[in-house]
Backbone:
């Protein structure tokens, strides 16, 4: 049992810390903006920077929370009799036993959501009605051995197991979130806690300093910190997410000017690694679902830093920061559908308040108007999603007046070409939106999908990326690519000589180009396949022209051992009653894929769905159209045409 667990956990750690041959640009924008000495003289001390009222300023809180106070108080009232959940040792161990993350995360999340809701409700109402339960929540978290999730403990712990051990505190996404939530709770309610019993705030402060401030300064081995970064190492959403939380804890808790400056500057060094890792085109290789955790958390971090230094340290004017923001607007198709490469869902749109405020910070009319579109689409209903991020909740309240009067509009581009990330979006007045990608098969939250595409007609998905199911131990282990949603066989790419694409940095696209005049995206995907596939070249071209998408594959093989197969995932069931045509009908719209019946036979496979993360998007099933080459050849050309009717 232990050998199996160690193998799986080692695989998970390898996936988190994988390396690949991608050159990052050492921009170091934050370190160039200020030295540690300049940080020391720029910081506003003693929490005087906090842009929100003191808890006792009820008139100011009434103005700030006016639009959402009724909602937040009602939400808090649900937890007045809440029975705080014990996260048992066996809940942590269940991650090793069955791979379930939810066993531990469900009670943990229930507690954190309860505390956040109670805090926001008390800030809105200010009558002390929620304080006893807030004290109970604070005490419960102070009693916990660790705030890190069971799935995240094996890597940084000496035991490499999912039960908290005594090798030191771990800062992961959840521990950072709880640290930030408790720091805001301490800031607003310290005086109230002291009236009940000074031990409450005393213990909370010491616990936060030990678990977050001191741990962050003492350790440099958390992979997300990127302090010991090897050439080409991955730096994903964990970096700005965790650093934002750490920064909040330092700014709200540390009163020693030297320690504060050292802590803040250390987060700047770490976040620079994330900015350096990202391409200047701004695309989020993790997909739109992760934008709010990646670029969105970078925005939160930069906004917090700007507040704490009275805008003396800011990089919102840098083009890459703006580009990273505008990606979310351009990845939106319409009617709630988004381009969902990697571990992203095809449904979403984004956090309207976050997008609006980010757009304000980088002076992007496109982002602000897109946020206005999302607000209008919601029926102009504004509410706060009660999670454990108090900062975003408070910022959303402050930003609402501007959002509510913003002119709504979707981006009007004909194409969005991310030359470094190798994403290409094409759309036209005939209602077609084509998204295709190159890249490599070791991207953050990677799927083996080099050369795949999605096609939307009048905002309806016809050729799709299934997305990702519920996360388990398997998702981030060496078994990741046994999951069908991760495999190239379930993306819109070929199986060559009987072989699918492989995972790894070396499996990548070549000769990636976009021709604006032709509205054509092209790439050679041969490098995404193993040597056994015997593929010398497989050049794929996508061209958008009116109501038609043209797909051309030109290939050369060293040998033709087995006939090739072309796979197409569709939301609608293909009607194959006419040879050479695959007809699709969905929500009153129609499209037909035309192929050469002399080259291919066609069949449809039903992919039954049961995972709620997939059924919530697609329903009970999607379909895989398989075109099987009738005769294996060492070279040839395939031509496909998808026409909207």
Residues:
């Amino acid at each position: 049992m232990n050998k199996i667990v160690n193998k799986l956990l080692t695989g998970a750690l390898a996936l988190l810390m994988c390396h690949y041959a991608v050159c990052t640009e050492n921009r170091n924008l934050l370190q160039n903006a200020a030295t540690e000495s300049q940080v020391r003289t720029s910081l506003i001390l003693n929490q005087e920077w906090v842009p929100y009222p003191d808890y006792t300023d009820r008139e100011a809180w009434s103005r700030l929370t006016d639009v959402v106070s009724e909602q937040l108080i009602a939400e808090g009232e649900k937890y007045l009799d809440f029975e705080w959940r014990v996260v048992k040792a066996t809940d942590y161990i269940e991650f090793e036993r069955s791979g379930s993350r939810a066993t531990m995360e469900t009670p943990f999340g229930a507690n954190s959501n309860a505390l956040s809701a109670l805090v926001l409700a008390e800030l809105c109402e200010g009558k002390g009605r929620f304080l006893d339960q807030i004290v109970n929540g604070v005490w419960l978290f102070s009693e916990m051995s660790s705030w890190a999730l069971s799935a995240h403990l094996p890597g940084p712990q000496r035991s490499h197991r999912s039960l908290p051990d005594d090798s030191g505190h771990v800062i992961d996404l959840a521990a950072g979130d709880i640290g930030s939530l408790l720091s805001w709770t301490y800031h607003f309610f310290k005086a109230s806690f002291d009236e009940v019993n000074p031990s409450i705030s005393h213990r909370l402060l010491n616990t936060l300093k030990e678990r977050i401030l001191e741990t962050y300064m003492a350790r440099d081995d958390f992979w997300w910190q990127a302090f010991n970064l090897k050439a080409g190492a991955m730096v994903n959403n964990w970096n700005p997410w965790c650093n934002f939380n750490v920064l909040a804890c330092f700014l709200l808790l540390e009163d020693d000017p030297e320690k504060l400056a050292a802590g803040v500057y250390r987060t700047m060094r770490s976040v620079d690694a994330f900015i350096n890792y990202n391409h200047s085109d701004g695309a989020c290789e993790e997909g739109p679902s992760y934008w709010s955790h990646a670029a969105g958390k970078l925005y939160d971090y930069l906004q917090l830093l700007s507040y704490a230094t009275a805008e003396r340290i800011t990089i919102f004017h840098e083009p890459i920061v703006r580009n990273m923001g505008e990606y979310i607007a351009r990845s939106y198709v319409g009617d709630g559908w988004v381009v969902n490469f990697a571990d992203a869902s095809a449904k979403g749109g984004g956090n309207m308040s976050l997008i609006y405020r980010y757009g304000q910070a980088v002076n992007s009319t496109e982002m602000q108007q897109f946020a206005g579109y999302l607000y209008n689409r919601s029926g102009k209903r504004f509410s706060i999603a009660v999670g454990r991020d108090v900062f975003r909740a408070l910022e959303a309240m402050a930003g609402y007046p501007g959002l509510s009067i913003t002119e709504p509009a979707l981006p009007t581009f004909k194409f969005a070409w991310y030359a470094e990330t190798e994403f290409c979006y094409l759309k036209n007045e005939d209602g077609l939106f084509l998204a295709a990608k190159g890249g490599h098969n070791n991207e953050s939250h990677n799927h083996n999908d080099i050369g795949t595409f999605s096609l939307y007609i009048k905002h309806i998905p016809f050729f799709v990326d299934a997305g990702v199911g519920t996360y388990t131990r398997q998702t981030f282990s060496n078994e990741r690519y046994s999951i069908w949603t991760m495999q190239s066989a379930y993306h819109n790419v070929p199986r060559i000589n009987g072989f699918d694409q492989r995972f790894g940095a070396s499996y990548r696209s070549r000769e990636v180009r976009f021709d604006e005049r032709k509205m054509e995206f092209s790439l050679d995907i041969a490098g995404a396949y193993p040597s056994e596939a015997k593929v010398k070249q497989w050049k794929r071209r996508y061209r958008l022209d009116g109501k038609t998408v043209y797909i051309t594959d030109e290939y050369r093989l060293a040998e033709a051992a087995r006939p090739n197969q072309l796979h197409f995932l569709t939301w609608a069931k293909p009607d194959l009653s006419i040879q050479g045509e695959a007809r699709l009908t969905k929500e009153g719209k129609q499209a037909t894929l035309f192929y050469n019946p002399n080259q291919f036979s066609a069949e449809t496979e039903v992919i039954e769905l049961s995972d709620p993360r997939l059924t919530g998007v697609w329903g009970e099933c999607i379909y895989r159209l398989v075109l099987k080459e009738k005769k294996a050849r060492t070279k040839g050309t395939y031509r496909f045409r998808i026409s909207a009717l």
